[in-house]
Design brief:
The protein is mostly helical. The chain has helices spanning about 1-20, 20-35, 55-65, 70-80, 85, 120-130, 155-165, 175-190, 195-200, 205-225, 230-245, 245-265; strands at about 95, 100-105, 115. It is built from twelve helices and three strands, in the order αααααβββααααααα.
């Protein structure tokens, strides 16, 4: 630290003596770094973590084993890509079962967006809502305090997500935003346009959404490299035609894991 202070003092004296202003100092430092052969280290972009299809199925199975209300809340969180702070603010009035749309009225930055939902989820929400016309979509079992009792907190949602993941035997750290990452990468893998995904997630900038796209591209490339056997490709295609995309993605994950295991054993 003493050497940094000494060097900074010497540079400051030179800048003052030469009459260099702030704008010029930027050019001076840039030229000095180039002459000294200094350059910024390569940017290390953290990869987006997600649940694999297998982990996702285990997670939801365990949630439903613990109770239908909790499971439906977590399934809604997963399928809509909602932030935990958005989920706890959802009200019955925000759900249009006829249109199969959930309105997130108080998203990040106070922005409003509408999120489409699958028919199966809409039917489950119809049973959950029943005859209610207003109130929290997922009320807390505890009375709570303040002007809005019976309202879940995002901290409580995080606790529930972590507890279900542990019970499901998922080793990685699972938190509400990880479910958002999961649905984002899944939708891109299924062909959703990145601009549509941006609206789905409510991102301010598409730069944020592109991080999911890059992660998904890398994931798909790894799968392709691992599944070089034409028989495997035919098998995945058949599963996709008969049972849909989700089952095909699960099969691809399982085959990739088995192929990697064989390579490990062969190299041992």
């Amino acid at each position: 630290m003493a050497s940094v202070t000494r060097i900074a003092a010497a540079i400051a004296a030179i800048l003052v003596r030469e009459g260099v202003d702030y704008g010029q100092s930027k050019a001076v430092f840039k030229a000095a770094r180039q002459r000294a052969g200094l350059c910024a280290p390569p940017e290390r972009r953290a990869s987006v973590q997600r649940l694999t299809v297998e982990e996702e199925l285990h997670f939801l199975d365990q949630a439903y084993a613990q109770g239908g209300r909790t499971a439906l809340m977590l399934q809604t969180l997963l399928e809509t890509g909602a932030r935990a702070s958005e989920l706890v603010q959802l009200r019955v009035e925000d759900v249009s079962l006829a249109e199969r749309v959930i309105a997130v009225r108080r998203g990040k930055g106070d922005k409003h967006r509408e999120v489409p939902i699958r028919r199966d989820l809409a039917q489950l929400l119809r049973l959950h809502i029943g005859a209610r016309r207003a109130g929290p979509l997922f009320a807390s079992r505890q009375e709570g305090s303040g002007p809005t009792p019976h309202v879940l907190t995002r901290q409580r949602v995080g606790q529930i997500v972590r507890a279900v993941a542990v019970a499901a035997g998922i080793n990685k750290r699972v938190y509400p935003h990880l479910l958002r990452h999961t649905v984002a990468t899944r939708l891109l893998a299924l062909g959703m346009d990145i601009a549509d995904l941006r609206r789905f997630l409510g991102h301010e900038s598409i730069v944020t959404t592109r991080l999911y796209a890059e992660t998904t591209a890398a994931t798909l490339q790894r799968r392709f490299d691992q599944l070089t056997d034409p028989t495997a490709h035919a098998l995945i295609s058949g599963i996709r035609q008969q049972q849909g995309d989700a089952a095909a993605l699960l099969a691809a994950d399982l085959l990739a894991q088995r192929w990697a295991k064989r390579l490990t054993i062969a190299g041992a």
